[in-house]
Design goal:
The chain has 495 residues and is of the alpha/beta class. It has three domains: 79 residues, Archaeosine Trna-guanine Transglycosylase, Chain: A, domain 4 (Roll); 122 residues, Rossmann fold (3-Layer(aba) Sandwich), CATH 3.40.50.261; 227 residues. Helix content is 29%, strand content 20%. The protein has 14 helices and 23 strands. The strands form six sheets. It has a seven-stranded parallel sheet, sandwiched between helices. Strands 1-2-5-8 form a four-stranded antiparallel sheet, with no helix packed on it. It has a four-stranded parallel sheet with strand order 13-12-14-15, sandwiched between helices. Helix 11 links the parallel strand 22 and strand 23. Helix 1 crosses helix 4 and helix 2 packs across helix 10. The relative contact order is 0.14. The model has no long low-confidence stretch (mean pLDDT 95).
């Protein structure tokens, strides 16, 4: 029985696959270590003596330095390991031709049943979305959605309002960010039609928001200004019914290359980088290899692993764009008086993650091994087939909203701790460990813990089947629970 895993040959630590106790002899990859203290599942154990001030390696890279000497069999964690991250860095363009997706492809191209739009994009849902321009009418939008949804049951996949507290008392780039994220959401192929609900006196005026939406999308947009309406709810319901009639269509068989996959992790633990994230990375490579699009983000959660991504830049222009977004985000931290390494949450730490370097090296595996072909700013829409890096913070709701706005039609969300959150598009929750999957079946859609028992090949096939089923209309746990949220990145002055 294997008790722990050494991720890469030469690593100085192994990750526990079960709870270990002082005196236990732990078997791993042909070697044994006797534990000197209790080491919980997901936490790290030193394979040999590590002097004070030495680099600790996992995934083949440094995850920090020891703050005191560590003996073989000791747990390596916050009491003896510290981050090595500081400020912005000068990076080198050193493309690694071996860091590409595997050549192997499926014997047949997987398919799903999607909604083919007039512009050629494919949705995984056919819904009407209601987007309030400002927080003042967020509840109004919800009331319209509830009543219209009840009337349209069976005629469309759903009517959903996405409330938020912003749209007024904002200035400059902060207001622009709110307006642009809503404009990008309004273009989403999962929304057969979109109703924009404004108040009338807000900074984020309906007219300005409409101007930010491309002309090709305008026929499926309707607007409502509450201050100018005798009965804004009834008027809104009538507009939703009109959109539903225009949006009526049937699912068609399409190849997985028509999928736009967003990848995200939240509440990671020490097993996330061994099971769920690399499994999602294989899904990313499958979609990219078929000719589809994958978008990944969480810029602060690539600090410490950014050079590995930069080595996968398709060309120097993409490399420089990655450098710009990474150093720009680090400077954002510094300008606010915060250290760039202040990321692992209490849940991450309890699950075995010690430093941001360790978290990042596990997190970036969601992006697979494909070349990075584009880098886009927050609130922008993906514009190229292949793997795209999106500027957004690590916050689950903010980054997942940004992935949806970028055009993701399905989000793969890995977690070691669990969360009930759901977002505008089907969000498939993938547990890093079987215990979580069994304890929270109402939250979790897929158990990546099976990788440890059955290997990646079995899990890959099962997850790909699940993705195609959900893209074809099967509900996610979050959808069954009515969990549909957006969060907008507000990073400016509030008036």
């Amino acid at each position: 029985m294997i008790d722990a895993v050494i991720v890469r040959a030469g690593d100085s630590v192994a990750t526990m696959l079960r709870d270990g106790y002082a005196g236990d002899v732990i078997a791993m990859d042909g070697t044994h270590v006797t534990l000197t203290q209790d080491v919980p599942r997901g936490h790290k154990v030193a394979l040999d003596h590590i002097p004070a001030g030495s680099a600790v390696t996992k995934y083949g890279y440094s995850i920090g330095r020891t703050t005191r000497a560590v003996a073989g069999g000791d747990r390596v964690h916050s009491d003896n390991l510290s981050t090595g991250l500081a400020g912005t860095l000068d990076y080198r363009f050193d493309p690694d031709p071996t860091r590409t997706a595997d050549d192997a492809t499926a014997a047949t191209t997987p398919t799903f049943k999607g909604f083919v739009r007039g512009d050629g994009r494919v949705g995984t849902r056919n819904e009407i979305w209601i987007l309030p321009t400002v927080g003042c009418v967020a509840r109004t939008a919800e009331r319209i959605a509830a009543k219209a949804g009840a009337r349209l049951t069976g005629r469309i996949d759903g009517v959903h309002a996405f409330g938020h507290p912003h749209g007024c008392s904002q200035l400059g780039h902060d207001l622009d960010g709110t307006r642009q994220i809503l404009a990008s959401l309004a273009c989403h192929p999962n929304a057969g039609g979109v109703l924009i609900v404004g108040l009338g006196c807000e900074e984020n005026q309906v007219k300005a928001l409409i101007e930010a939406i491309p002309a090709w999308r305008q026929p499926m947009i309707r607007t409502l200004t509450a201050q100018l309406s005798a009965d804004e709810v009834e008027e809104g319901i009538a507009l939703v019914e009109e959109l539903a009639e225009l949006a009526a269509c049937d699912r068609q068989d399409v190849g997985i290359e028509r999928l736009v996959l967003g990848v995200k992790c939240g509440g990671s633990d020490g097993l996330s980088g061994l099971t769920a994230n690399p499994l999602v990375g294989r899904m990313s490579d499958t979609v990219v290899g078929a000719g589809g699009r994958v978008v990944f983000t969480e810029i602060p959660e690539i600090f410490g692993a950014e050079q590995t991504l930069m080595n996968r830049a398709a060309d120097r222009t993409v490399f420089e764009a990655i450098v710009g977004v990474v150093n720009g985000f680090k400077q954002y931290f510094i300008d606010h008086g915060e250290p760039v390494s202040e990321n692992p949450s209490p849940g991450n730490v309890a699950g075995g993650i010690t430093t941001l370097e360790e978290k990042s090296l596990g997190a970036v595996q969601k992006a697979g091994r494909s070349p990075i072909v584009d880098v886009i700013p927050y609130a922008a829409r993906a514009r190229m087939d292949g793997l795209t890096l999106l500027e957004a913070p690590g916050n689950d709701a903010v980054s997942s909203t940004a992935l949806a706005a970028a055009g993701a039609t399905v989000i793969l969300f890995t977690t070691g701790r669990g969360t009930p959150l759901g977002f505008p598009v089907p969000t498939i929750k993938i547990a890093s460990n079987t215990d979580l999957a069994q304890r929270k079946p109402g939250w979790i859609d897929f158990d990546a813990g099976q990788v440890l028992d059955q290997g990646f090949a079995v899990a890959e096939s099962a997850l790909l089947d699940r993705i195609c089923a959900i893209a074809s209309g099967e509900e996610t746990a979050a959808e069954r629970n009515g969990e549909r949220e957006i969060a907008i990145w507000k990073n400016g002055v509030t008036l």
